[in-house]
Amino acid sequence: MPILALLRVVPIGTASPSLSSYVAKVIEVLRKRGVNYVLGPMGTSIEIDGFDELAQLLKEIVEVLRKEGVQRIAIDVSIDIRFDKELTLRSKVASVEQKLGHS
């Protein structure tokens, strides 16, 4: 069952208020696994095959950030599942753009 998810990974207690280097580590995990993603300013949207893949992905993200010295991580996950048709990140955006009259 393909699902879409929005991930927001927040390292807590880092030496700097900037988190972009940690976000880059998370994106490297997604790229390594071949996950289709869209990076946003407040989170990253992903397409995955199911909950097992999501669980494994979250585990890898935690392991990578722990190796970077992060002692605490908050992770928000928002999931979109549709049973009547397959969802993709691109199709969701295209649907809204079509209704706005954009090509």
Layout of strands and helices, then pairs:
Blueprint: E1 3-12, H1 20-33, E2 36-39, E3 44-48, H2 51-67, E4 72-80, H3 89-99
Antiparallel strand pairs: 1-3, 1-4, 2-3
Helix pairs in contact: 1-2
Structure, explained:
This protein has a single domain, classed as Alpha-Beta Plaits, CATH 3.30.70. Helix content is 41%, strand content 27%. It is built from three helices and four strands, in the order E-H-E-E-H-E-H. The chain has helices at 20-33, 51-67, 89-99, and strands at residues 3-12, 36-39, 44-48, 72-80. Strands 2-3-1-4 form a four-stranded antiparallel β-sheet, covered by helices on one side. A hairpin with a 4-residue loop joins strand 2 (36-39) and strand 3. Helix 1 packs across helix 2 (51-67). The longest helix is centred in the middle third of the chain and has 17 residues, at 51-67. The radius of gyration is 15 Å and the shape is globular. The mean pLDDT is 94.
